[in-house]
Every structure is written in C-alpha cells, then in structure tokens.
User: What shape does this take?
Amino acid sequence: MTGRPEGVRCMLLRGGTSKGAYFLAGDLPADPAARDDLLLRVMGSPDPHQIDGLGGAHPLTSKVAVVSLSAGPEADVDYLFLQVGVDKPEVSDRQNCGNLLAGVGPFALERGLVTAGEPETSVRIRMLNTGDLAVATFPTPGGRIAVTGGAEISGVPGTAAPVVIEFPMSGSPLLPTGNARDLVAGTEVTCVDNGMPTVLIPATVLDVTGYEAPRELEENGVLAGRLREIRLAAGRLMGLGDVEHTTVPKLTLLAPPRDGGAVTTRTFIPVRCHTSIGVLGAASVAAGLRVVGGVGEGTAQLPPTGDRLRIEHPTGFLDIESGVAYGRGGSPTASRTAVVRTARKIFDGTVFPRPAVPASHS
Ligand code: NQM
Assistant: This one.
C-alpha cells in the first residue's frame, strides 16, 4: 500500500460477544506504527464516543483482527488481535481475544484464504499475540457459511450458527507465579494464565458481593483503587512488567454461583467491567478454579465429574470445557479447553479513515 489510502477493505463482524473490524494483513501498512496510526483513525480514537469512526465507544467494540495465510505448516491462517483504545491513542497487541477469534474462520473463508468443507469447515488458526493454536469449526452446508443456526450465547440476542473453538493442549504452566495463591497488595489472589493472564479475587475480600451490575462496580471509586493496586503488583509478579498502560492482566471477582453454574464472575478488562466475560478470560477462570489450593476453593462449586463448567456473568453464562492436569513436577497445565461461540458478518466494504494529521501539525 502506498501514500495515503482513500479507503481500506474491511469487514465488520460480531465475534462472540465482541465486535471488530477484520482486515487482511496485506490491506494494511506492514509497518506497525503506520498500521496503528491508520487503525486509530479507522476506529475514531481517541474519543470517548468514537464518533468519527467504526468503534462502538467500549473496549468490547473497539477491536481489530488482522488475518493472513499462515507462515507455518501447523496453521491455515495467522490472526493478530489488536485492542484499539477508545479515549486513548493506544493500540495494543499485548492480549489475545477469543471472541474475535470466532469470526476469524468465517472471515478467512469469505476472503478465500481457506476453502469450504462439506458440511462443515475447520480452520487452524495461529494466534500471533501468544503463539498458541486454535481450531475453529463451523457449518458450511453446500460450501457456504451458514448464517442461521441453533446456537445461543448469553449477551447476544437470538441464535446463530455455532463456531466450535478448540484450543489444543499447549502444556504451558497455568500459574505464572508458580503459586496457587499469592498475597498481592495485601489481598490473597490466584494468578492464572490459560490464554489470558487473569487475577482471581474473591469478591467479598474487596467489600463487594460480586453480584452487582457492571456499572455499579465501575462507579465504585474505592474498588477501582484497590483493583489498580492489585493489578500493578500482580502484573509484576506474573512477569508482565509495568502494566499501567496494558490491558492485561484482567481481574475477575469470584462469588458463589446463583443459577446452577460453578461460579459467578465480574471481570475487569482491566478498568471497564465486562458485560459478560471474554473467551480466554473464561478459559483462565475455569482452569484457575481447578487449581488445588487456589482462591476459588470455598467460593466455586465444581461439578463432581466431567470437564464442562458454567461460568455465570452479568448477562448470563458461558459454558466451557476445561481440564487441568498435574504432571510429575506438580505444576498444573491445561489438558483441554473448548468453547462454543457464534459470529456474524455485519458489513463488508471499504472503510474511510479520518485523514492523517499532516506531519507539520503533529
Ligand atoms: O478473553 C475482552 C472479549 C474480551 C477478550 C477482554 C476475549 C477473551 O470479551 O478471549 O474475548 O478481556 O478484553 O472479547
């Protein structure tokens, strides 16, 4: 791509409970700084309303997926997730997104990167943010993406065709600090990473119930201060360095289940409170609850058998298959993670970014 583009080919998809702009890597500048500058102008950032761009004024709707044919033999396509700041001019590749991941297979098929199977298509995806692999399988009767289906996910009205996402066993340790519990900024937490670095905290130790609405929690200034302290200290302990300006680790408050699930959650991503829960966030919570000696003990109610866990969140629940194994060294690893999502193409076309500020004005 040369000069200042008039418009850029783009597809807007809902992926799970998030919404994002999907691009072919070749349609964006190769230089990360030029790419990020373009994406800020595409999304309308920085501006709390993102009024002059595609962004939806919330971290869950200010997301970008960059997809290309995979550079390696283990995957069909490579997927880079970029979180675009809403009111800050920041674009971060420090986290992954399992919700936008649900749209990557259908997008790759639409753009001709993979060919359709019959009656379903499986796409092997390398998630460039972490290097991990995922396999997404979705119905393609007659070689076309099914636009309707019977899968319902909490937080999205109606039903749609399922996208089954499996995360092959990576063998990576689940506990970045090596401990099932850590005392962080005076609070006992479990730091866990099953695809998303997450700090688990029993809600009551922060003087909330864990059943409050996201808005009420966001308006609690004392809670915000405590969460910030815990996050900065936990980030260092988890080997993430100074996390002041990063979107990881996430923080999940745990409370006993109220609707037949294993646990109730309120997740901070990391400042706004999620209206549901992220996919990899849920994968980390689910694995963290299975850690022997973790802070989930006494709060969560794990089913006596099977891998399936129901994680309750502000707008319903997310069912996830999650297994944890203890090897000879005694440190836990994820043995299985799988989840069902849905995705939907909203538009396909050309997006016109806000013009770049000429160098002399910057
Ligand atoms: O955890 C939100 C989301 C996410 C990320 C966030 C996600 C995941 O709901 O895999 O999907 O934690 O910032 O899209």
Observations:
- Residues 17-18, 59-60, 97-99, 196, 247, 250, 269, 278-281 surround NQM (CB under 6 Å).
- The chain has five helices and 16 strands.
